[in-house]
Amino acid sequence: MKLKEVNWKKQLTIPNGLTVLRLLLVPVMAYYIYYIDKYGWTGFYLFLAIWLTDMLDGFIARHFNQVSDLGKVLDPLVDKIFQLTTGVMLFIIGRLPFWVPLILLAKEILMIVGGSFLFKRQDVVVKSEWYGKVTTVLLVIAFSVTLIIPTSRLDIIPRLFIVPVGFAIFALIRYAYYYWPSIKKH
Q: DSSP label at 20?
């Protein structure tokens, strides 16, 4: 898909609008997470709203034939921004160990570099697979618990992220294995 070949009218869909809304809500969520002691559950509610909106835009896109090329690129990009922002903010406020956002950031950089290479060289858009979706669900659960857990129980947080981060690494390996033949061609 070349930019000049895109029919932009077909890209203006409800799911893409919801994706843009999610993107706009991420910095608002980050603010409320940063001031979690002052605003309590607001950051958590915004976190859930962003995640539920992600599920809703995917449902609408698939069930009402509104899947678009823009959505195939924008939706996973906003997911990455959302997850990384959440991880970094939780680290900044002292609720998450450094290794969690670091590993997630490294994984996403590799995914973006590989995906950009495939898109630029072969017009291939890396599609979401089950292992990527499972990783997202595991991270959402772990982030949710991290947002609502009392500060007296923060000691369990590192253990809480072993499975989601392990699954993120597994997903990266699976994506690399699946797309490596396409990358090797160039």
A: H
CB 183 within 8 A of CB 118: yes
The CA distance from 57 to 60, in Å, is: 5
CB 95 within 8 A of CB 87: no
With vertex at residue 142, the alpha carbon angle to CA 141 and CA 144, rounded to the nearest 5 degrees, is 65
Cα angle 113, 118, 124; round to 5:
135
Domains annotated for the chain, with CATH where assigned, are: 3-184 (1.20.120.1760)
Name the CA radius of gyration of the chain, rounded: 17
User: pLDDT of 146-158, one tens digit each?
Assistant: 999 998 899 999 9
Q: HEC string of 83-152?
A: HHHHHHHHHHCCCCCCHHHHHHHHHHHHHHHHHHHHHHHHCCCCCCCHHHHHHHHHHHHHHHHHHHCCHH
Token pair 């921004």: residue: 81
118 pLDDT exceeds 90?
no
